[in-house]
Task: structure prediction
Amino acid sequence: MILTVLAQNTTTNPTGPEFGKASPLGLVIVLVLLAGTVLLIRSMNKHIKNLPADFSPEHPEPDQAADEGTDPGAAEAETESEVEAAEDQKSDAAGAGSRETKPPGKS
Result:
């Protein structure tokens, strides 16, 4: 009995009176999407025309200093005495680590 119900094909007739008809809402959606696409393309073209032909800077000095990892404001803030004190601390720390200390009474 199940095979006879499955074998009947009563609702899939693609040549009926409603076949091929679309809703007018679908046409409106397609037209809105096309209009939006045209507006986006026009806007992008205007922005692209405003871009410079070459992106290399005319005066690369500030960028070069940043690329080398230097910060001119920080280098100017240090005085010579601060630099010498920092170097002395580094050399003292390196010298203390290299010396071997022996406990008293042992050679």
